[in-house]
Amino acid sequence: MAQAPTREDKFSFGLWTVGWQANDMFGPASRAPLDPVEAVHRLSDLGAWGITFHDDDLIPFGSADAERARHLKRFQGALDETGLVVPMVTTNLFSHPVFKDGGLTSNDRDVRRYALRKVLRNLDLAAELGASTFVLWGGREGSETDASKDVHAALDRYREGIDFLAQYVIDQGYGLRLALEPKPNEPRGDILLPTIGHALAFISTLDNHEIVGVNPEVGHEQMAGLNIVHGIGQALWQGKLFHIDLNGQRGPRFDQDLVFGHGDVLSSFFLVDLLEHGGYDGPRHFDYKPLRTENMDGVWASAEANMASYLLFAERARAFRADPEVQAALDAALVPELATPTLNEGETAADLLADRSAFEDFDPDKAAERGYGFIRLSQLALEHLTGAR
Amino acid sequence: MAQAPTREDKFSFGLWTVGWQANDMFGPASRAPLDPVEAVHRLSDLGAWGITFHDDDLIPFGSADAERARHLKRFQGALDETGLVVPMVTTNLFSHPVFKDGGLTSNDRDVRRYALRKVLRNLDLAAELGASTFVLWGGREGSETDASKDVHAALDRYREGIDFLAQYVIDQGYGLRLALEPKPNEPRGDILLPTIGHALAFISTLDNHEIVGVNPEVGHEQMAGLNIVHGIGQALWQGKLFHIDLNGQRGPRFDQDLVFGHGDVLSSFFLVDLLEHGGYDGPRHFDYKPLRTENMDGVWASAEANMASYLLFAERARAFRADPEVQAALDAALVPELATPTLNEGETAADLLADRSAFEDFDPDKAAERGYGFIRLSQLALEHLTGAR
Amino acid sequence: MAQAPTREDKFSFGLWTVGWQANDMFGPASRAPLDPVEAVHRLSDLGAWGITFHDDDLIPFGSADAERARHLKRFQGALDETGLVVPMVTTNLFSHPVFKDGGLTSNDRDVRRYALRKVLRNLDLAAELGASTFVLWGGREGSETDASKDVHAALDRYREGIDFLAQYVIDQGYGLRLALEPKPNEPRGDILLPTIGHALAFISTLDNHEIVGVNPEVGHEQMAGLNIVHGIGQALWQGKLFHIDLNGQRGPRFDQDLVFGHGDVLSSFFLVDLLEHGGYDGPRHFDYKPLRTENMDGVWASAEANMASYLLFAERARAFRADPEVQAALDAALVPELATPTLNEGETAADLLADRSAFEDFDPDKAAERGYGFIRLSQLALEHLTGAR
Amino acid sequence: MAQAPTREDKFSFGLWTVGWQANDMFGPASRAPLDPVEAVHRLSDLGAWGITFHDDDLIPFGSADAERARHLKRFQGALDETGLVVPMVTTNLFSHPVFKDGGLTSNDRDVRRYALRKVLRNLDLAAELGASTFVLWGGREGSETDASKDVHAALDRYREGIDFLAQYVIDQGYGLRLALEPKPNEPRGDILLPTIGHALAFISTLDNHEIVGVNPEVGHEQMAGLNIVHGIGQALWQGKLFHIDLNGQRGPRFDQDLVFGHGDVLSSFFLVDLLEHGGYDGPRHFDYKPLRTENMDGVWASAEANMASYLLFAERARAFRADPEVQAALDAALVPELATPTLNEGETAADLLADRSAFEDFDPDKAAERGYGFIRLSQLALEHLTGAR
Q1: CB–CB of B149 and A108 under 8 A?
Q2: Which of A12, A259, B145, D10 lies deepest, with the highest CB count within 10 Å?
Q3: Is-cis flag, bond preceding A216, omega within 30?
Q4: Residue D2: per-residue pLDDT
């Protein structure tokens, strides 16, 4: 069995995860509401380090100021008692029907202005609670028919909105970074910025691109059949992995939000390997939904399961990397050689053209005989993952 | 019936499309080789404007210089006779077994150097033939197991390679632009830069990003279940749609390369609408495979079908845009309003916060009562598409 | 524009479709409840022929007998006033949390017994209202982890349940037929009897298989990437297409329930062609969800759109079949020849083995030269679909 | 490390697997041909029990009789030397261009007759070699446009063909059983009998259904996003799992044919659990493709990997089933209770209606409070799979 989680593991949970009442498209709630204060205490007891929330999770939409203050005070009290931190806050621009055509890209300008105001207020709260990351998931920014959304204008508005919010953060000296969360579809037929790639590309066009990155969710990329390790790898490579949502998904279908490790096990293993050894030191944040079949005992068991899976994969990944046979197989597969630049230092096109060994004297048929041994590597990974080595 | 294609329509075809001999994973060729010279003449007769090719399509891999020259001369002769142009040339870094682990990101440095040399040679040829776009599809740049590919290093090498090639183009004064072609998988289990988004994000990191854009293929994005109109929309918005591959696909499955219009008809319609009215004036390039069930008559019928479909959708899209009922429905859906900035000119956060109409006096419940009429728009589009209006 | 729908078109709607309040996984209701009586009147005005419902749509779950009678009386009154019929009734074994692990295959035997009782009661109602089909969608019969469900036992229980219910129908002389509705996933991770094929196979094992068939939903098959025309074709071929749910879907993703014709247009066209010319004379039932962006005006527009799309495709399909060029292309493609048995009448294996023309004298290379002209057929279909012929 | 495979494990391989030369849609062969005699010896050395083949794998298409005999003799010699058996033979009705529109359902009747003759000949061979199963994969039986294939006629012809072949087997006293292999698509756009379910349903209509079952391939079902454990469970439940093709796939995309265990690991684990404990005692047959990146060393390593993965999962599954904590969790989840019939012995509808505890006195809200503990079960499975327990 894997070791117990500690604060050093930086595990955090969305309040909306353990607090999900299990209402879905085909049925109403099957669990009672969870008091945020209880969530803080229980998660703390289980070894979590942080808790996150949407504005509307903690403070019911439309609460009066006094009620709002009361909710916040109770919550802050629980944080103080437990030492749990709030590393990230996010905003809900998708539940209230006013956002049914989106928040920052709604066709309705009044809705867009209202959305900006809602976020501004929530940015103040995030700063107040000491969060370092502010996530924006644009779940309703999209369309079902291409006739309904001018993509050019929508991206203009998206850029306008994000740049405006980022400028506010800068101007207020909040020290927050914004993280966009991509998703290909659901609840909209197609959502703008559907993948890590599209979000990164969009960010590159921002005036305030320095403080804007991504918060990819494992399952969201897998809904598009994409390799999450490749996606996170590119986000890291571009210096833009500001936060991550860990969970499980079984390929292109509805957003399952399974426990991390209960979806694609191989990808989960390699993802943890990357997070642990690829230069990410942010929160390990779980964004999942405890199955509707579970009662509250099952909810807490699911919270534990997420952390246990992560720690288990981390242990397996360490052993994988430390195994001399694996090292030898990586070498045989020339994996480390990819870190060597293709060109010699300072080599120009003229130099390369003059290098007969690169072309004229290179025998492609001969070179093609190499076997890379990728299946061997794959099997070594499976054997480590399954504890067979 | 739609009108006949003319040179003004800028239709171009890959030599490998009509020339595909219909060998696939489960069977050998079912059609005889097609002489490139015949391809030029036939496509010209059908109303095409351009022809494109991979180096290895036109000149068998490994040809000696004299043979190479002979192939080129015959081809150039056909171009001269017909007036067909070569708007784009591309390179093959995926067929020869030497590239089985990729070209620019192969773990084997010698292969990477060889790949650069192969592309340099082909860039010269592209310039010689007057092409304005050079496409790079990295079909073998990827992996089947995450253990086999260090994504960070791979993207470093990819960047090194593309920047090197772009610099060569600049230094030679070729006036070419490079266009990267994304694809999520096949033949590799997962391919790097799997979508338009990932490619655009990658390009934003290049030193020579000004002359590098994308060449999206309709079916490739649809293999990831993504909305091609959204994807092309983002590429246009970022000023990076340098070229496009039109074809048909029926969702996440193998790469079908159907005739354009024989896959997702609604998306094809809206894509043509976007290309015709969204500021793209490059080639309308077909990259498809005539079904294996067809003989050469069927091949030429398929070439015609691609162009006929495009022209038909263009006609339907024009009528759609011109219909006053459509205009009224777009207005009712507030589609044009999205072009209006969310903020007033010069409006600051302080200004917005002071605008009580944006938040304090805004009634979200009331605003949520609006019906956008998107289904009506969708139905109007269907009726125009089907010629029922 | 297509003609207006009439009762002869046999269009029916689920009460839960126009009545959907647009609450989804990410937001609450955006529309007010719809009175079933109003639904009957409005649908009748629009030209519909029938209305269908789940027990819980019409009569809130757990209603006392008197309240139940009152609901039914009002509804029956509306039917009488309008002439609308109730061709189908279905049951809800998926909304109430008691069914969170399924109804007929819940691990909990008490739940299974309760489910049977709930259905028995609803069968009485269906008979009382004159329905001829009773649909069972087992949306919660499934699992998220294979450890939780013994598939062998689950199928035993499923068979036990369906056979029991069918026997009740027979014993009561209700004249009803049962129709199972397959779906691959959502809300469960994986649902038992995930496709038309699995349901047909299951039915073949029933004692009372004669009165049990399928009610396929277009989008459900497309969520598995399957060809709906092939699936419906097989159901018809097996004499088991008892009912059909028409709607739209854009490939493997969440269950979109779009308006019919707003998903895969080509498949919709060929599906209508099959329904109109393939021997189906049951209801054309729409099971869709009006987009959350719409108000009630949009809801009624969406109801109209479903019928208009169907009639439009039917008109296009008739023209396609009647076109002599299409007939010639079908002949050239040998489509009608497939109706000729492969063997001569009474031909035995010995006879075939003795026929040298079938093998020894048959030249496969020569025969392989035939071009089937399938692309031409496909293009003719597109041109008819788009009204270009 | 798992134990070495033995003959008792009943591992078999297709000759076309280790013999695949790694030519794909985008490149030619990267490996030399493999002599079938060497394949037999090497597989035997690695611990395999059986070898299987298509007619055309062993004997090049169109070989003269003498050549055919020579090939067979050499192969038989190798079998005799090693003790390897031929438990299954299959036929190739998909490679030669004559089958480009299918074999048993080609629109061209002459092709259909030729296909029957080809299979008859191969049935004789299968019997001669002592095979007990004859697999038919109809990879070209399908269409790309619905206009090209009359599904009703196609299924008539499919039934005619399979019944004819089955009758021949019966008449000849061959003792063979036929097994149909479903696949949703590739190489055809859509293939008839796309899933296990559709094939089982089709079989139920056959005159000779007793000797016809299915040969499901793991990856083929996963290409449709279906749960392979559910699918195999249904095939076993219907007594129709005659053979199985084990491999790996990563969801809806091209047919990857990965090593077993290198795709969806959780499903592989539960599938082995089902095969080992669910009443299947046939061959464990691997139908995969060694990656194109591998040379022959990698090919043999891949053969070993398939068997090692299977044995590893089998060991983990045994430990899972034997763990008292797992047993307790299964009990808590009521998994065994599903084996208890829902009705009491002999209970009629009248009896059930009279049982007030089943409905009138049953409190669904109370019953809904149960937590099934499925996440706990899922986590226990993951911990066993990963050797953490």
Answers
A1: no
A2: A259
A3: no
A4: 57
Inspect the interface and report whether the beta carbons of B371 and C298 lie closer than 8 Å.
yes
For D178-236, write each residue's pLDDT tens digit: 999 999 999 999 999 999 999 999 999 999 999 999 999 999 999 999 999 999 999 99
Q: Which residues of D83-92 are buried (b: 16+ CB within 10 A; e: fewer)?
A: ebbbbbbbbb
Q: Minimal Cα–Cα distance from C80 to chain D, Å?
A: 31
Contacts of C145 in chain A (CB under 8 A): 262
Q: Cβ contacts of residue B67 below 8 Å, gap of 6+?
A: B59, B60
Determine the pLDDT at residue A155.
98
β-bridge mates for residue A130, sequence order: none
Residue A279 CB coordination number (10 Å):
12
A380 CB neighbours in chain D (<8 A) are: none
Q: State which residues of chain C have pLDDT below 50.
A: none
pLDDT for the residue C56:
85
**pLDDT, position B102:** 98
Does residue A249 contact residue A218 with C-beta atoms inside 8 Å?
yes
How far does C280 lie from chain D, in Å, by closest CA? 13
Question: What is the pLDDT confidence band of residue B62, given thresholds at 50, 70 and 90?
Answer: confident
Contact flag D298-A376 (C-beta cutoff 8 Å): yes
Record: contact B374-C297, CB cut-off 8 A: no
Query: Which residues in chain D have their CB less than 8 angstroms from residue C192's CB?
Result: 230
Examine the pLDDT at B2 and tell me if it is beyond 60.
Answer: no
pTM (predicted TM-score)? 0.98
3-state SS class at C161? helix
What is the DSSP secondary structure assignment for residue C229, as one 8-state letter?
H
Q: How close does chain B come to A83, measured CA to CA in Å?
A: 33
pLDDT(D248) > 60: yes
What percent of chain D clears pLDDT 90, i.e. is strictly above it? 96
Structure tokens at C118: 């709930």
CA separation, residue D334 to residues A252, D226, D318, D349 (Å): 30, 25, 20, 25
A289, burial (CB in 10 Å: exposed 0-12, middle 13-18, buried 19+):
buried
Q: What pLDDT sits at residue B165?
A: 98
CA of D259 vs chain A CAs: smallest distance (Å): 8
- Out of B9, B55, B56, B57, pick the active-site residue: B57
Of all residues in chain A, the one with the smallest CA distance to D306 is A379
What are the backbone dihedrals phi and psi of residue C323, each rounded to the nearest 5 degrees, phi first?
A: -75, 120
Taking 70 as the threshold, does the pLDDT of residue D35 lie above it?
yes
Which of the following is catalytic: A57, A255, A264, A287? A57
Pairing of strands C245-246, C284-286: parallel
Contact between chains at D96 and B293 (C-beta distance less than 8 A): no
Residue A62: predicted pLDDT: 87
Contacts of C164 in chain D (CB under 8 A): 342-343, 349
How many other C-beta atoms can be found within 10 angstroms of the C-beta atom of residue C163? 16
- Two structure tokens written together for D379: 């986590």
Q: For the packed helices B265-277 and C265-277, what is the interaxial angle rounded to 10 degrees?
A: 140
pLDDT < 50 stretches in chain A: none
Nearest CA in chain B to A380: B147
- C-alpha R_g of chain B: 23
Contact A371 D298 (CB under 8 A): yes
Residue C2's pLDDT is 57
On the 0-12 / 13-18 / 19+ scale of CB atoms within 10 A, A82 is middle
Whether residues D26 and B252 touch (CB distance < 8 A) is answered with no
Q: Can you tell me the distance from the alpha carbon of D173 to that of D167, in angstroms, rounded to the nearest whole number? A: 10
In the predicted structure, residue D3 carries a pLDDT above the cut 90: no
pLDDT of residue D260 exceeding 60, the answer is yes
- Model pLDDT, residue C3: 80
Strand order in the sheet with D245-246: D212-214, D177-181, D133-137, D88-90, D50-54, D11-14, D284-286, D245-246
| CA-based nearest residue in chain A for residue D378 | A262
